[in-house]
Write a structure and sequence with these properties.
GO terms for molecular function: serine-type endopeptidase inhibitor activity. Residues 1-19 form the signal peptide. It is a single chain. The strands form three sheets. The protein has a seven-stranded antiparallel β-sheet. α2 (39-51) runs antiparallel to α3, α2 (39-51) crosses α4 (71-89) and α4 (71-89) crosses α5. It is built from nine helices and 17 strands. The longest helix has 21 residues, at 2-22. It has 399 residues and is α+β, with helices and mostly antiparallel strands. It has two domains: 1-184 and 290-339, Antithrombin, Chain I, domain 2 (2-Layer Sandwich), CATH 3.30.497.10; 187-287 and 367-393, Alpha-1-antitrypsin, domain 1 (Roll), CATH 2.30.39.
Length: 399
């Protein structure tokens, strides 16, 4: 178990580094818009990529995914983590009154190349992946449609097009996919009759009117000088898992980006800022929001040191049973996420595909939690620490 906990700590570190890069004003991935992504979905898809990579390409992936670890032990712990996540953390809990969860992996390989039996055994055994032999060379559009239908089914219709037209063509040889879905009800639901419009202050100094959910019940809340954190737990099922949403609200109205940077530069930041007990609050106000967001992750990942898989030096030799021609590399990593937060709870989904080709602040009571300016949020499973989703809201009216 200690090894698994270490792996989860490494995965969380990767998630927060990704979140900082994702929220950085220097990168135009998500500037001036609400955004959400699933570090878990990307981590699992990239771990599957590492399983089929060799040499320096594998080492580079392991260094980013396993916090600098190298060698067979690092790879084994990465695959063991994927197994643990698929079987335990992301098991459906809806029949026992917990969150409804779906989690699936897929490997689609061109029929002209035979998958390496060792890779196939690992993908099916540890990642619970479905492997398919397909015809990219003559039926690329049909294969893309097949992937999109699979994603739509796993995500209960919230994500309809992971692979846009042209993202897969006759030169595609392999697609690695991950899809996840989460729907949880708050342990203490908000009373919809108490939802009122209020002012939300934007990063540019203006403000908009937005619907705010409110409550005066005791809350898991903590203040840390320039930061307040609110934990909103979801109803549990019949096991020990506890999923929660965390809202990280900087005191400064324009403090979003520096908070995102702090989150990644201090690896234990999240653990040190988690409210552990309920306290009486004056009032909490949280805006309702709905985000659908997609992006191509290659540049983001190159910035985290994952460069070889995208280059002509990529070594993807462990995927296939026959010699891999020169020039097989990752052409794109596509990611889409969805989240909706309302009085009842949260619905969230994400999907990732790796495609390879040949070639004015008001005075407040200290115990209030008024989420009226840009903030970070994340959804995690608290007993393990696995982070499912990270996002930020700059304007709750943006769909």
């Amino acid at each position: 178990m200690a090894g698994t906990l270490l792996s989860i700590a490494q995965q969380t570190r990767f998630a927060l580094c990704l979140a900082a890069a994702f929220s950085s004003p220097a990168l135009p991935v998500s500037n001036n818009t609400n955004a959400v992504f699933s570090p878990l979905s990307l981590h699992v898809a990239l771990s599957l990529l590492a399983a089929g990579s060799g040499g320096a390409t594998r080492d580079q992936l392991l260094a980013a995914l396993a916090a600098g670890a190298h060698g067979p032990d690092a790879a084994d712990s990465l695959h063991a983590l994927a197994d643990q996540v698929a079987r335990n953390v992301m098991a459906d809990g809806s029949e026992a009154g917990g969150p409804r969860i779906a989690f699936a992996d897929a490997v689609l390989a061109d029929a002209s190349w035979k998958l390496n039996p060792a890779f196939q055994e690992l993908a099916v055994g540890k990642y619970k992946a479905h492997t398919h032999s397909v015809d990219f060379q003559k039926k690329a559009a049909e294969v893309a449609a097949q992937v999109n239908t699979w994603v739509e089914e796993v995500t209960s219709g919230t994500i309809k097009e992971l692979l846009p037209p042209g993202s897969v063509d006759e030169s595609t040889r392999l697609v690695l996919g991950n899809a996840l879905y989460f729907k949880g009800a708050w342990t203490n639901k908000f009373d919809a009759s108490e939802t009122r419009d209020g002012e939300f202050h934007l990063l540019n100094g203006t403000s908009v009117g937005a619907p705010f959910m409110s409550s005066r019940d005791d809350q898991y809340m903590a203040s840390y000088g320039d930061l307040k954190v609110l934990r909103l737990p979801y109803e549990q099922g019949g096991d020990k898992r506890q999923f929660s949403m965390y809202i990280l609200l900087p005191e400064a109205q324009d403090g979003l980006w520096s908070l995102a940077e702090k989150l990644s530069s201090e690896p234990e930041f999240l653990d040190r800022h988690i409210p552990t007990r309920k306290i009486p609050v004056g009032q909490i106000k949280v805006p309702k929001f709905k985000i659908s967001f997609g992006f191509e992750a290659s540049e983001l990942l190159k910035g985290l040191g994952i460069q070889l898989p995208f280059s002509s030096e990529a070594d993807l030799s462990e995927f296939f049973d026959s010699p891999v021609p020169l020039g097989l590399s990752v052409s794109s990593i596509l990611h889409r996420s969805f989240v909706e937060v309302n009085e009842e709870g949260t619905e969230a989904a994400a999907a990732s595909a790796i495609v390879t080709r040949g070639t004015s602040l008001l005075r407040r009571h200290p115990d209030d939690f008024i989420t009226d300016h840009p903030f970070l949020f994340l959804i995690r499973e608290d007993t393990t620490g696995v982070v499912l989703f990270v996002g930020h809201v700059v304007d709750p009216l943006l769909a």
